[in-house]
Amino acid sequence: MEIHYTAEQIAFRDEVRAFLKQELPADISRKVKLGKHLTKADHERWQQILSRKGWYAPGWPVEHGGTDWGPVEKHIFDEETSAAGAPRTIPFGVAMVAPVIIKFGTEAQKQQYLPRILSGEDWWCQGYSEPGAGSDLASLKTRAVRDGDHYVVNGQKTWTTLGQHANMIFCLVRTDPEAQQQRGISFLLIDMATPGITVRPIITLDGDHEVNEVFFDDVRVPVENLVGEENKGWTCAKYLLTHERTGLAGIGASKAALSHLKKIAAKQEKGGKSLLEDTLFRAQIAEVEMSLMAAEVSTLRIVAAASEGGVPGAESSILKVQGTEIRQAITHLMRKALGPYALPFLPEELELDYDGEFLVDDYAAAPASTYFNMRKLSIFGGSNEIQKNIVSKMILEL
Amino acid sequence: MDFKLTEEQQMLQDTAARLVRDVYTFEKRLEFSASDAGFSTEFWQQLGELGLTAIPFAEELGGFGGGGVETMLIMEQLGRGICLEPYMESVVLAGGLIGQLGNEQQKEELLGAIASGELQASVALEEPSSHYNLYDVQTTARQSGSEWLLSGRKGVVIGGHTAGKILVSARTAGDVRDQQGISLFIIDPNAEGVSRRVYATVDGRKGCELFLDNAKGELLGTAGDAYDAIRYQSGRAIAALCGEAVGAMRTACDLTLEYLKTRKQFGVPIGKFQVLQHRMVDMISELERGTSMAILAACLADDKDSEERSAKLSAAKFIVNRAARYVAEQCIQLHGGIAMTWEYNGAHYAKRLVMISHQFGDDDHHLEAYSNQLVVA
Ligand SMILES: Cc1cc2nc3c(=O)[nH]c(=O)nc-3n(C[C@H](O)[C@H](O)[C@H](O)COP(=O)(O)OP(=O)(O)OC[C@H]3O[C@@H](n4cnc5c(N)ncnc54)[C@H](O)[C@@H]3O)c2cc1C
């Protein structure tokens, strides 16, 4: 057993670090580290930089523009980009719909969509959840009825993250209402500019616009936009969900957040000392850091097993729960570090071009909002309760 | 020992409950929050007309001579509606400080007006680096002729943006963190040398930062001796906040339980899932724990000052802070995505519940305070 990276892996890590040092725009990483709002243009700028380097789609096969990295390299890459304050990759195109197209799509679909994802021409969003279908995704009701060369789609999707920026949406729709729940579902790619689509913002509790409702009213979608077979969309969905879950532990993001927490604690005062020197507060940072250490080793174990061809099972659900709890604990401590100054709600200070005086400091406007926003982590991507159901079904044999 | 309410207390509770129910619908609350004042001036008036702002004051000042229990009963109802009015700040805290430290003239001039609701006062005790230690005072006051002039910065003054008077702690002697040498002053927020930066708060209220530059202040009590009163009265504020938290937790639990019964997934109400039943029970168990400590705090709030009273009030705030956070987080979790939205009432309860811990000490602050006074024999 060996806990350290090999010499090649360290060389790879250094290469990634050097690249980030050179190429990651300072204004973007500053925004990320301070929890400020990223614009669509920020995301696109960073994506272009990665694309040029050939590193935007590490998970894809090389022939489509991916890399030949193994799981350990991918992990190192995630880790380093988070630590450097790179924007998280918006997963819907590159890490969600693309793997499905690569696995189940036609040659024409691959030709049409994959290059546009790499180049950033298409911004995808995920149309799974509906008002009545959250954890019980298979109860979804959005209907697609075949009419000649088209499907006519009617219904509503909700919680569509960053749908306001998207020009494409991948949807699960019901094509056979008679069949048993999972059987009558199909996977459709829909152009958001098609007549009949309305996007409405949902404002989250922190006052942000990050999710949307998407309404479909007689939306005509060409049949060639079906991925896989009709009524077999659940297979695509399941495939995608396992892809989604492994990234959800967010170890890299938590490490970056933890180091930001330490910076905040070093600046916030209590009793004439910094909070970092306050035994009680320091101990809480230590506690979460140790949990994170354990989660990181767990991740590495999964990563190592995957590079030997293993398929992550219950472990990835366990890690999703642990990882999200750790991230939430960090945001709790950041909010706590501000003391009474967690109360002021200063969204204007979250804009990078804010040129007024900071009430406290440039880091102080984000933590309370972030704390509430991060409650989502234990709800989406399969809620933490659902993850535990999965784990118990998989391994307990009760 | 008796945990029953008297007939009068029962009536008081009913009056407050009815008023909150009638006025504080979800939509109305959002409107009040978005208004300039950040709360309903009309509701504030109604609190006055119904005598609710007069409850803790002596009868000769037009009050009802109520104690901690009466305050808790009102605060609990204000918590049920997550009402935005600075009742605690004006009635409990400013009123309490003036009552304890003021001379006859100040009491006469101010307490009657606070009791009737005519005057909304606020209190500025925190500073950028005080972090709940109210003796950590850097703002200074110096005497110039017969006047006191204050300079410095006070932070997160809830209700300070609309207040007719603000009570400000400032140092007249001693070192930054000495308990001696702290004085309280009454300032007129519109006076020369006072400026404010007004902001909304995460829980939908409004407050301000107070910048003082040789601003005139009227001394309350004797110079240098205000800290005992500040500590004592912030104990009353803590008890009031505990009452408010209990009210807000109760509504958050009600909303969650209702949702468990109505939201269906996998063909059944989600309340059928045992894990959620247990979680709901844990929420109620936290609410129970919090209720007990809020009652304890209410019963001690107006007792004679003592170390035991202070320690128990710290214990109450510690337990209530933790309970409030648990209820807030689980309220969101058990609702799923819906409670992540501005449009859903439960989200606003969660925000207020978490923010209560940022007023008058979070769990760390009170854990430390309690352990420092731990009785070991
Ligand atoms: C910020 C945010 C962004 C999102 N982005 C997207 C997106 O881009 N695209 C998309 O399609 N969806 C998205 N979602 C939706 C997300 O996937 C759902 O919120 C999630 O599936 C939970 O569904 P729900 O909100 O309807 O909660 P419900 O399923 O109604 O769950 C409510 C509660 O019941 C619990 N529960 C449900 N079933 C069980 C069970 N069997 N056993 C035990 N407990 C159970 C849940 O854990 C939860 O605590 C997003 C959600 C949020 C909050």
Automatic annotation (TrEMBL), chain A:
Give cofactor(s), names only.
FAD
Regarding protein family, the annotation reads:
Belongs to the acyl-CoA dehydrogenase family.
Domain of life where this protein originates = Bacteria
PANTHER family listed in its UniProt record: ACYL-COA DEHYDROGENASE, ACYL-COA DEHYDROGENASE FADE29
Q: Which Pfam families match?
A: Acyl-CoA_dh_1, Acyl-CoA_dh_M, Acyl-CoA_dh_N
Q: What is this protein called?
A: Acyl-CoA dehydrogenase
The answer to whether keyword Calcium applies is: no
Keyword annotations of the record: FAD, Flavoprotein, Oxidoreductase
The Acyl-CoA oxidase/dehydrogenase middle domain is annotated at: 125-219
Acyl-CoA dehydrogenase/oxidase C-terminal domain: residues covered: 231-395
Which molecular-function annotations from GO does this UniProt entry contain? flavin adenine dinucleotide binding; oxidoreductase activity, acting on the CH-CH group of donors
Name a GO CC annotation attached to this entry. Answer: plasma membrane
Q: Where is the Acyl-CoA dehydrogenase/oxidase N-terminal domain?
A: 6-121
From TrEMBL, chain B:
Q: Which CDD domains match?
A: ACAD
Q: Which GO terms describe its molecular function?
A: acyl-CoA dehydrogenase activity; flavin adenine dinucleotide binding
Describe the location of the Acyl-CoA dehydrogenase/oxidase N-terminal domain by residue ranges.
Answer: 6-118
Keyword vocabulary terms for this entry: FAD, Flavoprotein, Oxidoreductase
What Gene3D superfamilies does this protein map onto? Acyl-CoA dehydrogenase/oxidase, N-terminal domain (1.10.540.10), Butyryl-CoA Dehydrogenase, subunit A, domain 2 (2.40.110.10), Butyryl-CoA Dehydrogenase, subunit A, domain 3 (1.20.140.10)
Q: In the UniProt record, does the keyword Membrane occur? A: no
Q: Does the keyword Kinase apply?
A: no
Q: Which family does it belong to?
A: Belongs to the acyl-CoA dehydrogenase family.
Report domain Acyl-CoA dehydrogenase/oxidase C-terminal positions: 240-354
Annotated Acyl-CoA oxidase/dehydrogenase middle domain ranges read 124-214
Stated name of the protein: Acyl-CoA dehydrogenase
What cofactors are annotated for this protein?
FAD
| InterPro entries noted in UniProt | Acyl-CoA_Oxase/DH_mid-dom, Acyl-CoA_Oxase/DH_mid-dom_sf, AcylCo_DH-like_C, AcylCo_DH/oxidase_C, AcylCoA_DH/ox_N, AcylCoA_DH/ox_N_sf, AcylCoA_DH/oxidase_NM_dom_sf
